[in-house]
Amino acid sequence: MSEKIIEFENVTYIYETEDEEAPVAGFPALSDVNLTINKGEFVAVLGHNGSGKSTLAKLCNAILEPTKGKVTVKEIVPDTEEKADEVRRIVGMVFQNPDNQIVATIVEDDVAFGPENLGIDPSEIRRRVDDALKCVNMYEFRHREPHKLSGGQKQRVAIAGVIAMQTECIVLDEPTAMLDPKGREEVMNTVKRLNKEMGITVVTVTHFMDEAVQADRVVVMDGGRVVMQGKPKEVFSNVEKLRSYGLDVPQSTELCHVLGIKEGVLNVDECVEEIARAMGGAI
Amino acid sequence: MSFAIETVGLTHYYSKGTVSQVAAIDNVNLQINKGELAGIIGHTGSGKSTLISHFNGLLKPDSGKVIVDGVDIWKDKETLKNSRFKVGLCFQYPEYQLFEETVYKDIAFGPKNMKLSENEIKERVLRAAEFTGVKAEHLNKSPFDLSGGEKRRVAIAGVMSMQPEVLIFDEPAAGLDPRGRADLINLIKNYRNQTGSTVIIVSHSMEDIAEMADRVIVMNKSSVAMQGSVDEVYSKGDELRSMGLNVPEITEIFAKLRSKGIDVPANVYTVEQGAEILRNLMERRSEE
Amino acid sequence: MIRDITIGQYYPGKSVLHNLDPRIKLIATFWLIVVIFLCKSFFSLGLITLTAVAAAALSKVPPKMILKSLKPIVIILVFTAILNIFYTQGGETYFEWWKITITEKGINTAIFTMVRIVTLVVISSLLTYTTTPTMLTDALERILSPLKVFKIKVHTLAMMMTLALRFIPTLIEEIDRIMNAQKARGADLETGSIFQRTKALVPIFIPLMVSSFRRAYELAFAMTCRCYTGGEGRTRMKQMKIAARDIVAIVVCTAVTAGVIVLNIFFDAVI
Predict the structure, then answer these.
(1) Could you tell me which residues of chain A have a Cβ less than 8 Å from any Cβ in chain B?
(2) Same domain, C119 and C16
(3) Is residue C136 part of a domain?
(4) Which domain holds residue C212?
(5) What is the mean pLDDT of each run of 10 residues along chain A (283 residues)?
(6) Interface touch A49/B180, C-beta < 8 Å
(7) Given strand A42-46, what is the order of strands in its sheet?
(8) Is there a single domain that holds both residue C131 and residue C261?
(9) Same domain? A130 vs A256
(10) Could you tell me which chain C residue has the CA closest to the CA of B85?
(11) Binary contact (C186, B162; C-beta < 8 A)
């Protein structure tokens, strides 16, 4: 059994005031959620807008406190400000809008912001900042002003800011929603590399199916509940069910499903192969 | 017959007169036919946003002309003002332009600027609300109390209520989830079918354009790189890829099937279309 | 393109002036400004003007750019010169007609004041040409940090300044976007009476406020996520160290001050 890093136990969350995130106050954004994220995993949380997926993300690093139930991060229950801070040293977060999470006027200063808050030695910060920027391929942009970068580049700077804090887990809340296809690809490649090469646990919240396909595990949210979870292949085998949750499937998956060839096909190559096979070698 | 919009040698520079002067759009000659649904695609920085900002006179060309319904919009002040009403422009994330106390007032902002009568304004607001699926009980609510998707509909209604002859959408589906996106595509298609207006969609999503457009215009490096029917443009996968655009997954599947020697057409861009072709092919094979 | 806006007027370079510790630069600038006001004679003023010219040469900022920073004060210069010429009387009379009398003292004072203002502007713009706004904020924070004893939240103020600098370009971009969106809906921002024009700003101002609040809210979240809890226990990646050149700068300032005092004693005061 692999080591747990984040654990949700019967978590319910109700927004108190009417704010941007919750047009319907008093209605549970999450109800009775049980979920475990294991160390080293790459988990994609899928759901339509308002399904509770962003709330789930914010509970991961104690930005929100559960109304009922318990969120545990490596045996820490963040019920005090000090413990919440400890949790944030373990779980870092990247948000949707790249503009609203960059605090400094120079790229490298922004990446240094987290480690500086942790009170790390200046020379060590320097080393971490350089490494983090290299890791997201933004090293040559270190002296630039963030507002002159593209969306994908800004998002990579934000990711570098988390890497420099050396958190074990990174939670990304719709990191690609505001990006163009090129930016999306840059960010997803970076995230995958963090997971595969550096062993950082990744939880990414998204409504792009092609991003979810790349994960180890897919968690589907609807109406504040976890309604499906499993390997991408298993989850994407239920095309009709996913549709009923306001989601879609990749076109490869859909084509094979409509033709009744095979369920849970995830990419173009697999799809082409299955179609060729269905043609019965009559080529 | 004149075109809905025509550009002649349209050129616009960034940082004009300085050393860093670059052409955002360079000698663009383009015709948008009346009543068509045209899609403009191109990667970020290809000049597509600059191009559409010229269509209603928000930007002034450094050289060249923008002709709307046969008239050069920069002819005089009056023509320029009218071009704003003739060509409606709905920007990316339009929900951030909402400001009025009520949804009704916000949708009425455009028609009010057109100095229409109260009755005419009311009629237009209700019609636009109906088109966009803004619920009647929301009309007296504050737009800021609505959900993200509802806000977007209100904002779109705010442009539709001007009843422009040409309606331009810049990335209409940005940030929406799959259901929201599908709803929006239907909304735009219905609007076009029922009003017969000219519609232009600007997007970097090849899938969205494939589902809506009659004709596709590809922008690359500040000028028009390709134009034609969806069929013609999407069959040139390699060229599109070299411009930083991705053809839809389904088109790629069919390209790979062809390279495997399976006799399927190259111009497939929606799943329904692809499924139909393969189903027929399989039936034929089993009969043989 | 609006994205190209640069805040402040930093001129990138690697000159001695660029490399000075920003704290020293800030202190030296204020120091020299005080000294400018100590000058009484043309000779003492000449010394400090010469210092300013030498500093400008050292900075390798093109003279054209330095002259550009004088452009906004031309009107002030002309105005003070005229006032001085007509209202300061004394010494030999050069010109007399009706109520206008131009005297030696008037001319001298006018020239003296003009040179003084120009020198002041050159010295302070050299500071902003060779130091980024961020470095200035940082330097200010460090210089003022002893004020912590008096419970003044120096760090918080500096953080606020940094965030303001960071968000000015973002907000300018946003204003541009909202203005275009409302113009596309026929909003008329250019014509009408002052009252009408002020009213026409409502459709821009409200969305701007709404989005700024949202940004502030999200930014606060993001900063909390990155373990920001205020200035306590924070370290800084970029350390400021006093180098030999900084000591030289202070020595130069001291020498200039001494020179000014001596020249003031030995030569006649103009004012």
Answers:
(1) 18, 23, 47-50, 150, 177-178, 180-183, 207, 209-210, 246-248, 250-252, 254-255, 258-259, 268-269, 271-272, 275-276, 278-280, 282-283
(2) yes
(3) yes
(4) 152-225
(5) 88 75 66 95 93 93 92 92 93 94 93 95 96 95 90 95 96 93 92 94 93 94 94 94 92 92 90 87 51
(6) yes
(7) A91-94, A169-173, A201-206, A42-46, A217-222, A225-230
(8) yes
(9) no
(10) C186
(11) yes
